[in-house]
Each structure stands twice: as structure tokens, then as C-alpha cells.
Amino acid sequence: MSFLRTAAGLLDRVKLLKGTVQTRRHIKRWVSPTLRELAHRQKKLGPQKPERRAGFVEWNQRSELFAFSKRLGESFDVSQLQRAFTEKSFAQREEDRRRQLGIEESDLQMPHNSDLVEKGQHIVRAYVEAFLQHQLPKVPNDGLQAIASFLLSTETLAHVSSHLGTKDLIQSTVYPPSAESLAKSLHAVIGALASSSGIEKAFLFVRDFICTQLNQRDLLEVWTPQEPIQLLENICQEQKLGEAEPRLLADCGKNTVLAAYQVGIYANRQLLGKGFGEDLKTATETAAIDALLSFFDTRDNRRPFDFSIDLKPNNVRLG
Fold first, then answer.
1. Would you say 186 and 120 are in contact if contact means Cβ atoms under 8 Å apart?
2. For the chain, which end, N or C, has fewer CB atoms within 10 Å of the first or last residue's CB respectively?
3. SS3 state at 49
């Protein structure tokens, strides 16, 4: 009897396992050839032109604008924010379309972001220049202008704008929007924020999203002093350090393609900087740049930028 019970139990287990396998096998045989055929047809069609997200049925512009403001943690006037994302070319095309439909002339005008772009440009430039003067007080005006130009460049602003999610919100005649269009939309958003929540909120927005592009960036890549030897000599004269004198510290591989020289620049018996190069001129310029980094306090081990400062409007010069 025990043998019969064991055999019956094993039979029940086999049936149970067989049923489990059958229930788990849910992929039909027609799925694989169908997917291969669809992939083959897609390959024959080639890459498709990107479509606007606003062209989908479930798109809701007002809801997307509300979500955009909440993602940033800012309070926008919805009408101002919608106007910030409407380009002039798109507004003109929409007005022409309405005119063709016979809409009255009083309802043809569509607001665009031209004035908000201009307002945002003034705010961004003013705050960036004030921020750099506060954080880099020893850097000369040429260096501050070069760093400010990097932060205000179309590439930097477009990078910030695209990562904030403005690509599908921009109402433009071209899709995907160009880098210039992304940069202008960011300016317009800042102008709309200033109109909605005040100039201080706009300043904090510029600090948090634009000035932070300097974080962990080598300033020497952004700005390299021109004619470093002459500039170093002028600084030594102004600070009464004596004449800057380059000296050869070491060399190897003379008269070969692998020659290397190490030059140090001294003033009043004090070493100001050291540099390497394949010839004496290059090594001397590198040493001068190394000395200038110490004077301007822009070395890699300098104190990090303080992105928590709160510059008040009276400390920012609006042009």
C-alpha cells in the first residue's frame, strides 16, 4: 500500500508541474516572426522625423506648464509662462492662420516672448557679472568677462534649458528647437519669473541653474591669460615684488624630439611658479601661467564656489 501511495503522490506532482509549465508558456509562436517583420519594415522606412510631443492627443499645454513650474519649485503666472514659450515666428504663423479662417482682427494678436527674452538677458548678465566679481575678486576684468561669456554662451544656456525640460514646451515653427531657441526660451522663463515672483527669485534661479555650471570646472580651460609673461611682470611691478626672472631648473633630452625643460620664475628670491615645455619659451609661458593662477586664486585646490550666497538687488547692477 505504501508503494501505491508513493506512486500516486509522484503522479500528482508530475501533473502539477506539467500544468505549471503549460500555464507559464504564454508567448505564442506567431509573436517572433511578427516582430521580425515589423523590424524589417521599420528598417526599410528609415529613421523617422521626430514628432512634437504637443501633437499627441493626450497633450495638455496648461497642465504641462503647471508641472514645469512645480518641478522647478517656482511660482509662475501661467499666462506669463505660456508667453515665455511662444516664439515670435510661431505667433505670426498662428495669426496668419486665424486670419485665413476669418477670425476678427481684434482676436488675431497672439502674445510672444520677445520682451521677456530681453528682460531675462539683462537679469542673467547682471547677476552673473555680480556673482563672478564676488567669488573671484582677484581675477582681472578680462578674465571675468571671459568666464561670463562662457556662462552666457548659447551652448551653456541651451544645455541648461534642455535639461530643465523646455524642449517640448517651446512653441516654434521648427522642431526640434535649435540651440538658440532653447537659450532664448530660458531667458524668457527667467523674465517671466521676475514678472511673476519678483527679481530676487529670478536671481536665485540664475544662481542655481546657470552659475552652477562652473562647479568642478577647470577655469584655465575657460580663460587662459594672453601674454602671461608680460601680465606677470606688470603684476610684480604693481605689487613691488621686483623683476620677474625665469630660471632653468632642469632639462633632459636636449637636441632630441623628446626634449623637456622645467623653468621656474622668481621675484625677489621667491619662487612664483614652475612650468614644463618642449622648449624654453613654452616652459617659461607655462611657468608664468602657473604664477598667475596663484595671484588670481584660480588653482584647482582653491576654495570652491559658494552657491548659497544671496546677492540682493542693490548689490547687482542692472543695465
1. yes
2. N
3. coil
Read off the pTM.
0.79
Could you give the 3-state DSSP secondary structure of residue 157? helix
pLDDT digits (tens, 9 = 90+) for 118-164: 999 999 999 999 999 999 999 999 999 999 999 999 999 999 999 99
Nine-digit cell string for 319 = 543695465
How far apart are the C-alpha atoms of 287 and 228, rounded to whole Å? Answer: 9
Distance between CA 96 and CA 235 in Å, rounded? 61
pLDDT tens-digit map of 3-43:
445 555 555 665 555 554 455 557 788 899 999 999 999 88
Residues 185 and 85: beta-carbon distance below 8 Å: yes
- Going by C-alpha positions, the residue among 171, 180, 193 that lies closest to residue 53 is 171
C-alpha 164/C-alpha 159 separation (Å) is 9
For residue 178, the one-letter residue type is S
Take residue 155 and report the three cell numbers written for it: 551652448
Please provide the DSSP assignment of 263-304 as one string: EEEEETTEEEEEEEESSHHHHHHHHHHHHHHHHHT-STTSPP
By three-state DSSP, how is residue 244 classified? coil
Per DSSP bridges, beta strands 260-267 and 245-252 are antiparallel
Q: How far is CA 246 from CA 211, 230, 255, 266, 277, in A?
A: 37, 12, 21, 6, 13
306 contact partners, CB below 8 Å, separation of at least 6: 135
Q: Which residues, including other chains, have CB under 8 Å from residue 68's CB and lie 6 or more apart?
A: 81, 164, 165, 166, 169
